[in-house]
Specification:
single chain; alpha/beta; Rossmann fold; 2 domains; six-stranded parallel β-sheet; five-stranded parallel β-sheet; 11 strands; 44% helix; 14% strand; globular; Glyco_trans_1; transferase; Glycosyltransferase, family 4; glycosyltransferase activity
C-alpha cells in the first residue's frame, strides 16, 4: 500500500500536536509495511498513491487545496480533522473579534472536506459529535485515537535528574507550546500562589506571552525535549498539567500518563473520553478547580491511568487501527 500524507508546510518548523500525530502515525504504518510519503505540494501528481491522508482542518487553507487536488485526480481521501470548535476560546475577554469572524468565514471550506472526504479519522467519539453538530453533513468515520511512543513504557527519572540537577525534587510539569490557548499563564499564577515549582517544556509561539508566564519566580523553562529525555522528564514530575482552553485530548497528557505521572487536564475537549475518572480535571475559568487539582495531585496514584494508557493508546496500536481504516477505504 502506498499512501501520501499531506499537511501544512510548516508542520516541522512550527511543531504542534498535529506534527507528533503525523510523524508517529507515519512511522507506525511504515513498521507495518505501508509505504508512506509526505508532501505539502497542493498540485502533486497523485497517480502513484492508493490514497491521500490529509491532516488538520483547523488550518484549513492548505488542507482545502490538498483536498481539491485529490478530488480532481479522483483519489480516495482519508481526513484526520483534529477539530474542536474554538468559539469559547475566541470569545474570551481581550481577544480580537476578527479572529472569530475569520474562523466562521472558513467554515464552508471545512464543511466541504468533512462531507466529501471518503473517510474521516477523528481522534475521539466526542470529536465526531462536535463535527456532526457544527456541519450539516458528515462522511463515514472511524475513530483513530492519539497515542504515545511505545519506548516510553518503563521511563525513569534518572536521565532528567542528571541533566537538570538544580531543579527541585518535586515539581509540576507542563509540556506544550507556550501559547495563550495552552493557558500556561494561569497555571503559573495558581502554582505560584500555592508555592509549587512549575517546569515548562515546548516551543515558544508568542514571545510576549512567554515573558509574562516566566515572570513568575516559581517557573523554570527548559526548552524543547524529545525522546528518552522527554520521557524521563515526565517520569520525574509529580504531576503533568495541561490546562488549555481545549484539547483533543492533549498528546503530552497521554505521554505523561504513560510514563507514570499524575495527569491534570482541562475538561474542555475530549480528554475525559481518554482518561475517564483516572485524571484530575480543571475548567479554564475556575481557579478553584486548578488549586484543588494541584493539591490533590500530590496524593493521587498515577498507576490506574498508566495501565489504561499502556493498554489502549500506544502508537503501534494506533498504526494498526489506521491501517485497518485504510483497508475499509480501499475496499
Amino acid at each position: 500500500m502506498k499512501v501520501l500524507f499531506q499537511a501544512r508546510p510548516d508542520f516541522m518548523k512550527n511543531p504542534a500536536g498535529d506534527t507528533v500525530q503525523i510523524v508517529s502515525t507515519g512511522q507506525a504504518l511504515k513498521n507495518l509495511g505501508v509505504e508512506v510519503h509526505l508532501s505539502a505540494d497542493p498540485n502533486m501528481d497523485l497517480s502513484p498513491y492508493d490514497l491521500v491522508h490529509i491532516f488538520n482542518i483547523t488550518r484549513i487553507k492548505e488542507s482545502y487545496m490538498f483536498f481539491l487536488n485529490a478530488q480532481k485526480q479522483m483519489k480516495r481521501i482519508a481526513l484526520s480533522p483534529i477539530y474542536w470548535s474554538p468559539n469559547a476560546y475566541l470569545k474570551r475577554e481581550g481577544v480580537s473579534s476578527n479572529a472569530l469572524a475569520v474562523w466562521k468565514h472558513m467554515q464552508p471550506m471545512r464543511a466541504r472536506l468533512v462531507s466529501e472526504s471518503t473517510l474521516l479519522l477523528p481522534n475521539s467519539h466526542l470529536e465526531i459529535s462536535v463535527l456532526q453538530n457544527d456541519f450539516p453533513h458528515v462522511s463515514s468515520y472511524r475513530v483513530v485515537p492519539n497515542g504515545f511512543p511505545d519506548s516510553f513504557i518503563g521511563a525513569s527519572p534518572q536521565l532528567f535528574r542528571e541533566r537538570f540537577p538544580d531543579l527541585p525534587d518535586e515539581f509540576v510539569l507542563c509540556a506544550a507550546r507556550i501559547s495563550t490557548r495552552k493557558n500556561q499563564h494561569w497555571l503559573a499564577k495558581i502554582s505560584h500562589e500555592l508555592g509549587l515549582s512549575l517546569v515548562l517544556l515546548g516551543p515558544v509561539n508568542d514571545q510576549k506571552y512567554f515573558q509574562n508566564v516566566t515572570s513568575y519566580s516559581n517557573v523554570s523553562y527548559l526548552g524543547t525535549l524529545q525522546g528518552e529525555l522527554l520521557a524521563s522528564a515526565y517520569s520525574a514530575a509529580k504531576a503533568h498539567a495541561l490546562t488549555s482552553w481545549f484539547e483533543t485530548p492533549g498528546l503530552s497528557s497521554i505521554e505523561a500518563g504513560a510514563c507514570g505521572t499524575v495527569v491534570i487536564s482541562t475538561d474542555q475537549g475530549s480528554p475525559k473520553e481518554y482518561f475517564q475518572d483516572m485524571a484530575l480535571y480543571v475548567h479554564p475559568l475556575d481557579d478553584v478547580s486548578l488549586r484543588t487539582a494541584l493539591e490533590q495531585s500530590f496524593n493521587a496514584s498515577p498507576l490506574p491511568l498508566m495501565q489504561h494508557i499502556h493498554g489502549q493508546y500506544s502508537w503501534s496500536k494506533v498504526g494498526e487501527i489506521t491501517l485497518d481504516a485504510y483497508q475499509t477505504v480501499l475496499d
